[in-house]
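#lab-general

N.A. 3:47 PM
ok so I finally got the sequence cleaned up, no stray characters, all 321 residues accounted for. can someone with queue access submit it? mine expired

B.Y. 3:52 PM
send it over

N.A. 3:53 PM
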Amino acid sequence: MNDSVIRCEGSWTIPHLTMLNTLLTTIQWPAVEDVVWDVMNIRAMDTGGAMVLYRTLTELRSQGKQVSLEGLRPEFDDLLQMVSSHWDRVCEVTPATERFQERVQGWIAQQIRQGLNGVGFVGEAAVQCFRAFRQPSLIRWKALFHSLELDGFHALPITGLLAFLMGVVIAYQGAEQLRQFGANIFVVDLVGISLFREISPLIVAILIAGRSGSAYAAQIGTMKVTEELDAVRTLGLSPMQLLVLPRVFALVIAVPLLTVYADILGMIGGALIAFNQLNVSGVEFVERFEEAVALRHFFIGIGKAPWFAVIIALVGCYQGF
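B.Y. 4:20 PM
back already:
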């Protein structure tokens, strides 16, 4: 650039807009009124570069300068004419700001989309389960027993420890209050009914959800990222039959059994506290247990376990898919 001639060169395209804007905003324009832009050496130009050039020319003309172009290629001139003819609309465009209403609408649309996908996943799983019941040969027995071992047998230590401590805590919390009224024997009712009806199935479900449900999502998600699911479909196999059904069936079997196991360990923990804190002997504990804890409490708790298992397995697998 000399006193009255500004020479432009290079590529005036979108990838170079940041550099062009920085250069044009920091340049010191000549003080003369007549300015000539020599654009003969511009190798490439797109609409982005044409907008930058036209904006700069407009700013100079608004300062009272007489600006002219020399050596502009015909195709670049067409771009510049197109930009100038639509410049009013370009100038009216403001940076898009997402309004509250748009965010709410987007969130609602996303929730509806996820809900429909979830319903479709559950429906497909139900259809595959029905087919598996009609044709047991469709069940992947090896995968089922493997999942049963990992999600059931390997969960026995932590489930037993947690259930035992829950029985201890429930009995210990109630011991002081019962002792004040001389109702020591009712600790059996407290521990037995609460464990059998609510606490054991719920604790087992929470434990399995954190231990197995998250593992399902991680395993299937990894398979999706590494395109193993696509390979399974390419081989003509159903990911639902291969990955989902064995896990669902395994948890439906394992969770009720773990609930029974938790009931037993919880009652043992409660019996120890009853013996140490309330002087309730083992014989008295068992006799009161037979009188106070009806069989229906056991079946109510066990009846919840399969539903917890289905929900945990389907949610974990769905999050992986």
